[in-house]
Hints:
The protein has helices at about 10-20, 35-40, 50-55, 75-85, 100-110, 130, 140-145, 150-155, 170-195, 205-210, 220-230, 245-255, 265-275, 280-295; strands at about 1-5, 25-30, 45, 65, 90-95, 115-125, 135-140, 155-165. By secondary structure, the chain is an alpha/beta fold. Strand 4 (about 65), helix 4 (about 75-85) and strand 5 (about 90-95) form a beta-alpha-beta unit. The N and C termini lie far apart (about 45 Å).
Amino acid sequence: MHIGIIGLGKMGGKIALRLLKYGHEVIVYNRHQDKVDVVVKEGGIGFSDMEKFIEKMNSYETPTVWVMVPSGEVTNNILIDLGDKLKKNSIIIDGGNSNYKDTIKTGIILKKSEKKFLDIGTSGGLWGYENGYCLMAGGNKESYDHIEPILKDLAAPSGYQYMGKSGSGHFVKMVHNGIEYGMMQAYAEGFEILKAKDEFNLDLDKVTNVWRHGSIIESFLLDLTEDMFKEDPDLSKVRGWVEDSGEGRWTVLEALENNVSAPIITLSLMQRFRSRKEETFTDKVLASLRNEFGGHAIKKK
């Protein structure tokens, strides 16, 4: 199948390369030619001119374009522009972390211009290229069925599913990220307790390694934790400044709007705010974990 991809950052570039590996025809757009060249070298078709990219996509019977850029105004503008310029019945996909409320509005606009829209929450971070991604899709079911071969090759085994109407994919991904906040916070606090016990002088790399094999708390995040302790046991190169990219805030707001008690996710968000005032080892673990799984920037000393 063919797929157009707009945005070749940490996720978009790897998605393009994975689909090429599985034999799909991949057409990409990015403002920076060097990122386009990486995909072209592996067999993709690349453009640094949006109009030429759209012209190419309109040459297909059913143009299918996956947008993978930072959420917010940039994404919204691109989606609406595609709605204006792609031919009727094109499939437009937002694979980023857009707020599901924005997604619902965008879906209405694109439907009026006779375009089909999917919101696909995408999880897997930097490791998705090798291991496959987790894909949570909402929107037009006919379009989902049409691109299922792409989703199957992009995802980890059994790692994709149709969630429901427009906005549902991004809503599920939002809550997924809220849960992620709580899990990371628990790991980070636990490792600070271990480190604070001077009498045992515990090797955190050893602790992490044994927990990864047969324990109830083993996980992909724990695998990444071991990697970061191997490289820097005391996390001496990292500042304990923990950013948040929006989804945790939206999850907490959704809990409030629906009268759901969500103290763990809420407190994990509050702890990120607190990290910007003073530094603890917990914050260093959190900052390092975000860098390990998602390539998020860290502040170094």
